[in-house]
Design goal:
Length: about 120
């Protein structure tokens, strides 16, 4: 005896399969494509906290670090280089979705960051 749940389409009796795409999830009929769906919004998109991102090991002599900091701060290379000379430069403030993207950009050039408050994503 199987413990697996098998949903049957109420329109045609076909097999229903589960799908999750973006912010939508549901059951879809493999025969007639009838479906029942609901929203499933990721927690990171619901997080309204404003996070501050600080560059930890940025090197003001490293061209890729300067370029990335200029990109995330929206400044030029001279301003980014000057910012990287600070002990713990603040490079970004924003939502969880934005901070996750900024963190990935910084990490891509070998930079680490400190995020305040604690970043669960």
């Amino acid at each position: 005896m199987s413990n697996e749940f098998q949903a049957i389409c109420e329109k045609c009796g076909g097999k229903m399969v589960a799908r999750h795409e973006g912010s939508m999830q549901g059951l879809f009929c493999t025969r007639c494509d009838w479906s029942v769906v609901t929203t499933n919004i990721a927690g990171i998109k619901l997080d309204r906290t404003q996070y501050d991102v600080f560059a930890i090991n940025g090197d003001y002599k490293n061209h890729s670090h300067i370029k990335v900091v200029a990109e995330v701060t929206g400044s030029n290379s001279l301003a980014a280089r000057k910012l990287l000379q600070e002990p713990t430069p603040a490079v970004f403030r924003g939502s969880a979705v934005e901070v996750k993207r900024i963190k990935a950009i910084l990490n891509s050039v070998g930079m680490f960051c400190k995020i305040i408050p604690d970043f669960p994503w």
